[in-house]
């Protein structure tokens, strides 16, 4: 069986039901042949992020064995490097669900996001230390997770 040929990268929106064909203004068409192509997945993700994380996603445009064009979903790029550790916070007092630590200021204040891809990577020791500090509030748990490759 022959693998599908990757043509390039594009932005797809479930909401719009199509592929981004012009960037400014944003216009979408259902036909992958008309998609605005990017050279790299990173450039497609940057374009998708400008449209909103829940609104659009980067995809790979591929030509299958029969010559038809379609897309394959790409995994979200993580800010944290593979092998690093991220800190996930669960707070039953907040209706947001899981929060991920995105930054830590010099005075110890943390910033967090609901998007796992925004999480900052730490060494295992730093992550465990931070999780222990963050658990000192009622209704809150903090856990560490290793970013997979």
UniProtKB/TrEMBL annotation:
What domain of life does the UniProt record list for this protein's source? Bacteria
- The name under which this protein is listed is Uncharacterized protein
